[in-house]
Design goal:
The protein has about 250 residues and is mainly α. It folds into two domains: about 100 residues, no CATH class; about 150 residues, no CATH class. About 65% of the residues lie in helices and about 0% in strands. It is globular. The chain binds zinc ion (ZN). The site of zinc ion has 8 residues, from loops.
Length: about 250
Amino acid sequence: MSLAASAVMVFILGTILGSFLNVVIYRLPRGLSIVRPGSRCPHCHTLIRPRDNIPLVSFLILRGRCRACRAPISWRYPLVEAASGGLLAGLWIRFAPTGAWVPLAATALFALMLVVVFFIDLDHQIVPNAITYPGLVAGLLFAIPQGRLVPSALVAAGAGALFLMIAVVSGGGMGGGDIKLAAMMGAFLGWPLTAVALLLAFVTGAVAGVLLIALKRRSRKDPIPFGPSLAAGGVIAMFAGQSLLRWYFGIP
Ligand SMILES: [Zn+2]
């Protein structure tokens, strides 16, 4: 099978996983079970049938409306599905040709966790421990076969300590969830990509903050969650971190 054909299949698999992530994003911060009951329309509570629950496709066929009550379905659902598909297909194209299966599995899990963190923190201003604790452990476990457990553990501890310091100095500007998320990113990305990711997160956060205030979406006093910026920094570092480092340091 050609790389393009396999990447399309991985994209489709990613949209199915993304459909599950939508459930996690909605239910995890509300303390609801992520396995049952089946999905319902949040407006009329009609159970959504499997044929109306096909990632991306159903949204297009239904033109973004519930089949029963015609209430609009959030654009968030197809966006998360498309993002999950796109991220996994991108990682597949990057790692599959060289048979780098461990980095592929590690970055795929990491990317999907970041998608969940991005939207939950955006909606609820929390980064759930249910993501960061298992994420930290998974990042360290994946470091073992890559022969970098000790450096990854040190980077995880360093990133966590840095954010703890920022939290103390800023007096609550940075939350406990951000500290654990930074540690988890350190475990997955190791050195030097974690530094790239955190730097990108600060730039993204500053730009987003200025834009949101300029567009009057947030006032100067509103807290702006940092998790989405960390997630964005992690994803950019995952794909472009090595290239950015080579470009910055002028290494051919
Ligand atoms: Zn409905």
